[in-house]
Write a structure and sequence with these properties.
- By secondary structure, this protein is α+β, with helices and mostly antiparallel strands.
- The protein has a four-stranded antiparallel β-sheet, with helices on one face. It has a four-stranded antiparallel β-sheet with strand order 2-3-4-8.
- The protein is elongated, with a radius of gyration of 21 Å.
- A hairpin with a 3-residue loop joins strand 6 (95-100) and strand 7 (104-109).
- The chain has helices at residues 4-18, 123-126, 140-148, 155-160, 170-180, 194-208, 272-277, and strands at residues 25-28, 42-49, 52-58, 65-71, 77-82, 95-100, 104-109, 112-118, 244-246, 258-260.
- The protein is built from seven helices and ten strands.
Length: 279
């Protein structure tokens, strides 16, 4: 899943391939950037901010500094190939950008929110984000403060809101709430030990940094890596109850599917807010 740790890993891959190297060619396959060329620019570094990727570049002779911003969402990916190697990552029609150096080629597939802006204006794209769970400036107290600012909000939604803390996606939301024994639809005001939950979120993402398998159980075998995520109708690893799944209506349903154990996470359940609002 392209969550904060996946984006962090992707930034490191791009950094190894591009940082310090001159770009020999670029190919943008999105209308608003189709005429842009980065040939002659030097890649300085690739960094992540929550789920956002920031590739920073500088013009020759110490000129302008630009940042190529991209977001992976659910289906985006960057792949790096050696010069002359066959691109086998995904179908060609999904390619959105190609960056070439003498040694390698970085290909961005199905990227979202592609933008090329002056580096000093990065804040316009990522300044709204909360503390980055994998950032050097991580601030757990600030993340807690932001979540607590909306006490009536369901905790599952609050954790996914990147303005509260940046990096949690659906997988970590589901796993984190299971580990804390909290129903995903519990109002923030009723969540016990919210600082402990936020601290656990930080530890979970940090523990998976540097590898592609996202494990919350500690097992590095994919079928055993998670407690509830993707395990609908399978027995809970703790109590044996069938794992439940809920997908809300709407266009973002695929990104908001919730998995939980009804016994280990007792609470109001899906639709609680709507039920309480009825006369």
């Amino acid at each position: 899943m392209p969550e904060g740790d996946t984006v962090w890993n992707t930034a490191r891959v791009l950094n190894r391939a591009l940082a310090g190297r001159g770009l020999t060619a670029s190919d943008f396959r999105v209308p608003h950037l189709a005429t842009e060329s980065l040939a002659g620019w030097t890649a300085i570094e690739s960094a992540s901010r929550g789920k956002h990727l920031l590739l920073r570049m500088r013009e020759a002779a110490g000129g302008r500094a630009l940042t190529l911003h991209s977001h992976l969402r659910m289906d985006g990916a960057w792949r790096v190939y050696a010069a002359g190697e066959r691109w086998a990552g995904r179908p060609a029609h999904l390619i959105r950008v190609v960056l070439r150096t003498a040694e390698s080629v970085a290909v961005g597939y199905h990227l979202h929110e592609l933008a090329l802006i002056p580096t000093e204006r990065e804040g316009e794209l990522v300044g709204h984000l909360g503390p980055d769970l994998l950032g050097a400036d991580w601030d757990g107290d600030e993340a807690v403060r932001r979540i607590e600012a909306a006490p009536d909000r369901e905790i599952g939604e609050a954790l996914l809101d990147q303005r509260n803390l940046a990096g949690i996606g659906n997988l970590y939301k589901c796993e984190l709430l299971f580990l804390r024994g909290v129903d995903p639809w519990t109002p923030v005001r009723d969540v016990p030990d919210l600082p402990g939950m936020v601290a656990l979120a930080h530890r979970l993402l940090a523990s998976n940094r540097g590898r592609w398998l996202q494990t919350t159980t500690g097992s590095l075998r994919k079928p055993e890596a998670n407690y509830v995520y993707g395990r609908r109708a399978q027995p809970c690893r703790r109590c044996g109850t069938a794992i439940a799944k809920h997908a809300p209506d709407g266009e973002t349903a695929a990104e908001r599917i919730t998995y939980w154990c009804p016994r280990c996470q007792p609470g109001p359940g899906p639709g609680a807010a709507a039920r309480s609002a009825r006369p």
